[in-house]
Amino acid sequence: MLAGCVLANRSPGKEMKPLCMSWLAPNEAKQKIWTKFRVEALQPGARGVPDGPLSGSDLQVCLPKGSTCCSRKMEEKYQATARLNMEQLLQSASMELKFLVIQNAAVFQEAFEIVVRHARNYTNTMFRNHYQNMGPRALKFVGELFTDISLYILGSDINVNDMINEFFDSLFPLVYSHLINPGFPDPSMEMTECLRVARRDLRIFGNYPKTMMTQVSKSLQATRVFLQALNLGIEVINTTDHLKFSKDCGRALLKMWYCSHCQGLLLAKPCAGYCSVVMQGCLASVVEIDNYWREYIRSLDGLTKGMHGVYDMEHVLLNLFSMIRDSIMYVQKSGGKLSATVSRLCGRSQQRKYRSAAYPEDLFIDKKVLKLARIEHEETLSSRRRELIMKLKSHGSFYSSLPEYICSHRSAVQNDTLCWNGQEITERYSHPVVRNGAKAQAGNHEMKMKGPEPVISQIIDKLKHINQLLKGMSVPRQKTPDKTTDEDESESGDCDDEDDCSGASGNGDVRVKNQLRFLAELSYDLDMDDVPSNKQLLNQQSKDGSAVRSLGSGSTLVGRVPVAAAVVVVFLILAH
Prior knowledge:
This protein is mainly α. The protein has helices spanning 2-8, 26-40, 72-130, 135-153, 160-180, 189-201, 208-241, 247-257, 272-282, 284-287, 290-306, 313-318, 320-333, 335-346, 381-393, 402-408, 454-474, 485-492, 532-544, 563-574; strands spanning 419-420, 425-426, 500-501, 512-513. Strands 1-2 form a two-stranded antiparallel sheet. Strand 1 (419-420) and strand 2 (425-426) form a beta hairpin. It is found in: Cell membrane. Residues 471-508 are annotated as: Disordered. Cell surface proteoglycan.
């Protein structure tokens, strides 16, 4: 009824007395203005509403044609409220997208750490089952290798080739003293150092270290850039969520949302065209992110499509144990010749015993150790990545659509008739709508545009950088010249996402799934001391046959997510 009275007494273009001094009694008018001000300005104890009309000579934005209902203090309160409203609307607009990215960043980080833990336990179990004499000492080197892998994924400045070299340097003295010369006393420190040097000079393990470097490096680089991209996505959204708007923008927001109150038009709504012009001006620098955001999603899509074979850390890490086993068998095959060469190089001469080149059966993985789970509709990290990209694509136009979103959520009058134009109620808003982007704001008659916001320029630079990294990881791989097809295939280790991939060669080998199935009982005989929580959760889940429902899809989570909470999140989400 109030709106009807206001509009009935307000003819466009005609100066009227404001509500606080016209058809209501003074006390009743003041009460309505005060109530509206208290609600809108979020000040329960707000004071400063005048008893009657004011000249408004001290107002800076809501300049009256005649008298006004607003004091200077009210205008200041309204401007602060307008800025707060704008920030809340931005955060509301980004809520779904922000949750999507934050959730997936946490899920993938914890899932990658789970893969590393299982890969480590696969390797530890292989040593314990088949190289019992040197197994306990090998566990130290295995632990160091996979610790370095975890740190690298999280962004540590570690060289992948160095970590692989260090592992094989440490492994060879054990292999030499326990397998090449069984029964031989542990080598001295000098002998150990000589064996470490000899390992590289004589290429003791053949091409296995080089192949392992290639596969681990490519897969970890892709994984690391993927996580960096997700964390940057969170940073981009946080930056725009908490953007500090210019003084001109604050004045324009006040004029659009609250200056009508000073004329007693408490329920007046801004014209949609007017709102669009104001938002285009306020968000001009934010909208500049749009092209880089779209490119970010395209580049992330390109990376995820290429994360298979040697670019898939699941496939590579979960098969490392078999590559390490094969490298040890390679050394044993040339044991006699190798022992003599190493003895001459390191200056040791003693009675040597060799392992036979024919491998005893216990060198092969017992089929009881690996029980392949056959489960329909199993979900992998690969499918989870595809789902994330699909959802991100639906937010590709997020930044370009922000002005429209905010206007639609502040109840602007869509047909631009009988609406507030910043000065009065107008029959029709006729000013042309300004296009998106900072360059188009030269013709914005509602507010002046200054230079780009420094914080937006910085976030655009970061997006450019991560887009270059993503594109670099997405470049199609070229076969090395002078390599035969067989050699290239043997080194690349490519394997389709859903294929079974053999981790070793020779009769009796067991083919191992190249991806960890998060809904299946993890079938490898793991070291239960190392992975108590997630292993038991998965086993219990599989035995009970219970289905876990998803929470749905995705503060910057650069650090580690607490394991107990994150593991629960991982399995709830990956069970979708």
